[in-house]
């Protein structure tokens, strides 16, 4: 457990958090919308962990869009009450956000720039028609490319990124794309997933994909829906201390999972021409 050094200095802490993105308008703070950062700030203010987002330099390791989930996102903040932060944060957060670990961090630690590697998973809602074609196409993304055809490029951002690992996996949980890099562009993983699915369905040729990876396209690739995307892992050079998941949150998420599975079954049975 963190020790409280008193009120004279602030301690920089990092937290490994997860969340279900369905009810959020993204992770980044927006004053008039429900966001992950907004809920975290409100929880910290209620608990007396921070006095303001600006003073605490509260920040996340990356931005996720509306509907995108996270199994491992890194939160950093500075506080005069580190012991309170470690003990109280999980209990103050809403049911769809949780903390799984904490660590001391250098005062200069800023998670968006100081993480080492990021891994995303994209789960496809429908199985691909040709998973081998998808796997062959995925290999083209390895290495350094111009991703301007696969992302929304913010002003001042370079479209060039390096993919360290990419894999298309099919198992009992369905078909997924798993991709690792130091950093990604806005919508980049969803556009990669969308293009690979188009290849599997014969809707995009390999030669077109090759051209897109040179930054040559009239129209950008359409991103896959956000619901299947999970920020799966974020690594930083920190000494993590695990925090047990709150039992009530675990039960509530498990119950929601069961309800959604039932709803999926009901929807499929209601399809015209489908017999029970």
Automatic annotation (TrEMBL):
It comes from Methanospirillum hungatei JF-1 (strain ATCC 27890 / DSM 864 / NBRC 100397 / JF-1). Its EC number is 5.4.99.12. Substrate binds at residue 120. Belongs to the tRNA pseudouridine synthase TruA family. GO terms for molecular function: lyase activity; RNA binding; tRNA pseudouridine(38-40) synthase activity. The active site is at 65 (nucleophile). SUPFAM superfamilies: Pseudouridine synthase (SSF55120). InterPro entries: PsdUridine_synth_cat_dom_sf, PsdUridine_synth_TruA, PsdUridine_synth_TruA_a/b_dom, PsdUridine_synth_TruA_C, TruA/RsuA/RluB/E/F_N. Residues 19-114, 137-235 form the Pseudouridine synthase I TruA alpha/beta domain. It is an enzyme of class 5 (isomerase). This is tRNA pseudouridine synthase A. Keywords: Isomerase, Lyase, tRNA processing. One of its GO terms (biological process) is tRNA pseudouridine synthesis. NCBIfam families: hisT_truA. Gene3D superfamilies: Pseudouridine synthase I, catalytic domain, C-terminal subdomain, Pseudouridine synthase I, catalytic domain, N-terminal subdomain. It catalyses: uridine(38/39/40) in tRNA = pseudouridine(38/39/40) in tRNA. Formation of pseudouridine at positions 38, 39 and 40 in the anticodon stem and loop of transfer RNAs.
């Amino acid at each position: 457990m963190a020790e409280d050094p008193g009120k004279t200095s602030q301690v920089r802490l990092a937290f490994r958090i997860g969340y279900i993105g369905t009810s959020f308008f993204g992770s980044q703070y927006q004053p008039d919308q429900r966001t992950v950062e907004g809920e975290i700030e409100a929880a910290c203010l209620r608990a007396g962990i921070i006095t303001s987002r600006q003073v605490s330099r509260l920040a996340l390791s990356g931005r996720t869009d509306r509907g995108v989930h996270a199994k491992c996102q890194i939160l950093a903040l500075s506080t005069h009450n580190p012991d309170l932060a470690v003990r109280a944060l999980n209990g103050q957060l809403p049911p769809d956000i949780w903390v799984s670990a904490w660590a001391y961090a250098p005062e200069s630690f800023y998670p968006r720039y100081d993480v080492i590697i990021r891994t995303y998973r994209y789960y496809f809602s429908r199985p691909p028609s040709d998973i081998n074609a998808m796997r062959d196409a995925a290999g083209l993304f390895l290495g350094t490319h111009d991703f301007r055809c696969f992302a929304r490029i913010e002003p001042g951002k370079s479209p060039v990124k390096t993919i360290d690992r990419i894999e298309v996996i099919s198992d009992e949980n369905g078909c997924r794309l798993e991709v690792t890099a130091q950093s990604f562009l806005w919508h980049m993983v969803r556009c990669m997933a969308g293009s690979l699915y188009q290849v599997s369905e014969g809707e995009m040729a390999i030669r077109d994909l090759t051209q897109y990876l040179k930054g040559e396209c009239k129209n950008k690739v359409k991103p896959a829906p956000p619901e299947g995307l999970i920020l799966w892992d974020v690594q930083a050079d920190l000494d993590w201390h695990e925090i047990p998941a709150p039992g009530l949150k675990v039960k509530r998420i498990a119950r929601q999972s069961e309800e959604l599975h039932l709803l999926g079954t009901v929807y499929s049975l209601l399809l015209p021409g489908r017999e029970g």
